[in-house]
Specification:
Blueprint (H helix, E strand, L loop, with lengths): L1 H24 L3 E2 L2 E2 L8 E2 L6 H12 L4 H6 L3 E9 L5 E8 L5 H10 L7 E3 L2 E3 L1 E10 L2 E3 L5 E2 L2
Antiparallel strand pairs: 1-2, 3-6, 4-5, 4-8, 6-7, 8-9, 9-10
């Protein structure tokens, strides 16, 4: 019984530390600086405007599926890569996996219009970060979660 209690206590401590670090991580970036970073929190990932879900919703709302892709009822996953600069600007766009019909170019054109991101931080300094963004298509439409489709 003693081993079980110690094991359970150490698990609760690890979970508590993990939850605390996630809560602290939300408020580390203030005025382009990081103050009093705990030793276990030396990296902060870049974040799109309005958060990850907000950015995804913005893409879904504003992405215009090229007519040729709709007519061809294109299927597959489009993947682009880009860089988030130290000041949050986006650059170096590349299509990593193309499904054709100008779908990649249309996604890059849209993401270029995005507001600046919160940059990534490492050891208390803003750093350039690479980012990969996938977009799935099913029968010429955007394939969203829960098998919902968006047509335009």
């Amino acid at each position: 019984m003693g081993f079980f209690w110690i094991h359970k206590l150490s698990f609760m401590c690890i979970v508590s530390i993990s939850i605390l670090s996630q809560a602290v991580g939300q408020s580390l970036v203030l005025d382009d600086s990081i103050a009093d970073i705990p030793p276990h929190m030396i990296e902060v990932f870049p974040e799109p405007p309005y958060g990850t879900n907000g950015f995804k919703n913005w893409i879904v709302k504003n992405y215009k599926i090229p007519t040729a892709a709709k007519k061809a009822k294109v299927n597959g996953k489009l993947i682009i890569n880009f860089t988030i600069e130290k000041d949050g600007r986006l650059s170096n766009f590349q299509i990593t996996k193309d499904i054709g019909y100008h779908t990649g170019e249309a996604l890059i054109e849209l993401i270029r219009k995005s507001s600046p991101w919160k940059p990534g931080y490492q050891d208390g300094r803003a750093v350039k970060c690479g980012y990969t963004y996938p977009l799935r298509f099913d029968a010429g439409n955007l394939a969203l979660e829960n098998n919902k489709r968006k047509t335009k």
